[in-house]
Specification:
It contains 13 helices and no strands. It is mainly alpha-helical. Among the domains are: 21-116, Alpha Horseshoe (Serine Threonine Protein Phosphatase 5, Tetratricopeptide repeat), CATH 1.25.40; 176-262, no CATH class.
Length: 262
C-alpha cells in the first residue's frame, strides 16, 4: 500500500511539473503583458508534441504585440512571422477540436491585419480568403462563435458596392451570439454593426419577404433599438463581472460611449 501511494504521489508530481497553467498565462495576456506571455509560450512549445492551446495563443500574442508596432515595415514583418508559424499548424488535427479551430481563427486575424496594413487593394483582395479561413474553422468546430463574429465584422466593414452583405452580417452575428451571448466583443461590436446598418422594421420585413427568411435579429425592433438592447446587456453583465480584464474594460468603455449617443 505504501509503495502504491509513493508511486501515485510521484506520478502526480510529474503531472503537476509538466502541466501548464493557462489561466495564469491568460491573466498575463489580459493585463497587457503580451511580450512576456509570448516568451513563456514559445519556451513551452514542444515541437515534437505540440499543444493546440499553446499554438493558437502564440498567434494571439503576436497579433497583440504587432498592434502596438508603429513602423509599417516592422509591423508587416511581425504579421508575416505569425502567419508563417500558424501556417504549419493550419490543418492541425489534435483531439482538442476547439484548439484546432482557434489556430485557424488566429491565422485569419493575422492575415486580415497584414492585408489591411498593406493597403485597401490588398485588404479587398484578401476578403475571399478570410471567408474561407472562417469557414474552415467552422468546419472544425461549428459551435465556436468567433469565426461567425469575424465574418459578420467583415460584412459590416465592407461597403455593399464591394460585396458587403448586411443581411448576412446579421445572420452570422446572430449565430455568434447564440453560441456565446455574454461575449463583450460580440455584444458591443454587434451593436455597432447594427447601428451602422440602420435598418428599420419595415425594411427588415421587406427583405425577409424577398429572401424567404429573416436575418436572425428581432423583427419587431429597428437596428437602433436592437443595438440598445445589446449594449445594455453588455454593460449589465460587466457590472456583475468580478474578473474584469483590461481589454474588457476598454471594450465596455466603447460600449458606454455608443449607448450615450443612441
Amino acid at each position: 500500500m505504501k509503495r502504491f501511494l509513493f508511486i501515485a504521489f510521484f506520478i502526480l508530481n510529474i503531472f503537476l511539473a509538466f502541466s501548464f497553467d493557462f489561466e495564469n498565462l491568460d491573466n498575463l495576456h489580459d493585463n497587457g503583458k503580451y511580450v512576456e506571455t509570448l516568451g513563456i509560450l514559445q519556451d513551452k512549445l514542444d515541437k515534437a508534441s505540440p499543444d493546440a492551446q499553446i499554438i493558437w495563443r502564440i498567434g494571439r500574442e503576436i497579433y497583440y504585440i504587432t498592434k502596438n508596432i508603429k513602423d509599417r515595415k516592422q509591423k508587416l514583418s511581425k504579421f508575416e512571422e505569425g502567419l508563417e508559424f500558424l501556417k504549419s499548424y493550419y490543418n492541425f488535427n489534435s483531439s482538442d477540436i476547439r484548439g484546432n479551430a482557434k489556430i485557424i481563427h488566429w491565422y485569419a486575424i493575422l492575415s486580415s491585419e497584414k492585408a489591411s496594413t498593406k493597403g485597401i487593394k490588398e485588404s479587398l483582395d484578401n476578403i475571399p480568403d478570410l471567408f474561407k479561413y472562417c469557414d474552415d474553422a467552422i468546419k472544425v468546430d461549428q459551435n465556436y462563435g468567433d469565426p461567425y463574429y469575424l465574418k459578420a465584422m467583415i460584412d459590416d466593414g465592407l461597403p455593399t458596392l464591394f460585396g458587403g452583405d448586411k443581411f448576412r452580417m446579421s445572420e452570422n452575428l446572430t449565430k455568434a451570439l447564440v453560441l456565446d451571448g455574454e461575449n463583450y466583443w460580440f455584444l458591443v461590436d454587434g451593436a455597432k454593426a447594427f447601428i451602422n446598418r440602420g435598418w428599420d422594421v419595415k425594411k427588415k420585413a421587406s427583405l425577409s419577404a424577398k429572401k424567404g427568411k429573416n436575418d436572425g435579429s428581432p423583427q419587431d425592433k429597428s437596428d437602433k433599438e436592437y443595438a440598445k438592447i445589446l449594449l445594455t446587456k453588455a454593460l449589465d453583465l460587466f457590472a456583475k463581472d468580478i474578473n474584469q480584464t483590461m481589454l474588457e474594460k476598454e471594450k465596455i468603455e466603447e460600449g458606454k460611449k455608443l449607448l450615450e449617443k443612441l
